[in-house]
Amino acid sequence: MKLLSYIKQWKSAAREAVAQASIAAQFLSFIHITDAYICSTTLVQGPSMLPTLNYSGDVVLIEHLSHRLGKLEPGDILLVRSPVDPKKIVAKRIVGMEGDRVTYLTEPSYSESSRTVLVPKGHVWIQGDNVYASADSRYFGAVPYGLIQGRAFLRVWPIGDFGYL
Amino acid sequence: MWSIIREAFDKTLLVAKAYGILHITNSYLCTVALAYGPSMIPTINLTGDLILAERISPRIGKVGVGDIVIVRSPVVPRRVVTKRVVGMEGDQVTYLLDPHNSDEVHSIVVPRGHVWIQGDNIYNSKDSRDFGPVPYALVEAKLLWRVWPPKDFGPMQHISR
């Protein structure tokens, strides 16, 4: 008898738990879809985009719409999955789209020698603003368009540097 | 009138929730792919097979040689292609340069962070022999189980060389 009443209690508690969990799941999936497909934030750090982005870290807003609509242009700062380390995401600037000829210094610290490449179809050429300390397309070649994760458009932290990129 | 609007809103919300769940399952867990074309004959039919593909293995690094994977094309970014992984990073891959006409082979070491993909039908397949090794991050899913046509229902053959 007592067992039956316990089961009844648990049933209603379980039903309420499932209802709350489903609300939480819907909320999380809404947040996730916004984060993955519309706008998200990232901490970007490292020397490769000096002086545009600080060495010790900037929080930037990333939008995920432009690259899906094909509206990227040279000069955009992109978040790109690294072709040499699939677990890493890097922030670089587009220097050339497919079909463009890109000229770059092969050894900026030591010599004036430069090389010109044609960016292949379906790829982009990305470089860090700080050519002296940046592993980018000059090192791993043009990057397939499918590796682009988003475009950084607004810096939100530090507050002194708040503004469009 | 307001009750109609409210009902419409509720129904739309329900559809949006269902779509959201379906989309997240499709993008992160498991999806059904229609694979067609001549490049994977005889493994995949020319006119198209429906195959269950899971998206978890590429994220946890469990893609290896012999797996059939769905890869975003490095040449046409809106397109996905289905090919077999022939070499992981560091592997030495040997392939025929022109299988129709000669026996000439070319050997290459797959660079770090990349995979070498080839179609099973090397006579009619655009793959890494044309566009080079593909960055691992472009691997989207691994084919698991063929669902249609019914006579071919079953697991995808895993071939390791």
UniProtKB/TrEMBL annotation, chain A:
Catalyzes the removal of transit peptides required for the targeting of proteins from the mitochondrial matrix, across the inner membrane, into the inter-membrane space. Belongs to the peptidase S26 family. IMP1 subfamily. One of its GO terms (molecular function) is serine-type endopeptidase activity. NCBIfam families: sigpep_I_bact. InterPro entries: LexA/Signal_pep-like_sf, Mito_IMP1_subunit, Pept_S26A_signal_pept_1, Pept_S26A_signal_pept_1_CS, Peptidase_S26. Heterodimer of 2 subunits, IMP1A/B and IMP12. This is Peptidase S26 domain-containing protein. The keyword Membrane applies. GO terms for biological process: protein processing involved in protein targeting to mitochondrion; signal peptide processing. Its main location: mitochondrion. The active site is at S48, K92. It holds the Pfam family Peptidase_S26. Keywords: Hydrolase, Membrane, Mitochondrion, Mitochondrion inner membrane. Residues 26-104, 114-157 form the Peptidase S26 domain. It is found in: Mitochondrion inner membrane. GO terms for cellular component: mitochondrial inner membrane peptidase complex. The lineage of its organism: Eukaryota, Viridiplantae, Streptophyta, Embryophyta, Tracheophyta.
From TrEMBL, chain B:
Keywords: Hydrolase, Membrane, Mitochondrion, Mitochondrion inner membrane. Its main location: mitochondrion. InterPro entries: LexA/Signal_pep-like_sf (IPR036286), Mito_IMP1_subunit (IPR052064), Pept_S26A_signal_pept_1 (IPR000223), Peptidase_S26 (IPR019533). It comes from the Eukaryota. Residues 15-95, 107-148 form the Peptidase S26 domain. Belongs to the peptidase S26 family. IMP1 subfamily. Catalyzes the removal of transit peptides required for the targeting of proteins from the mitochondrial matrix, across the inner membrane, into the inter-membrane space. Heterodimer of 2 subunits, IMP1A/B and IMP12. This is Peptidase S26 domain-containing protein.
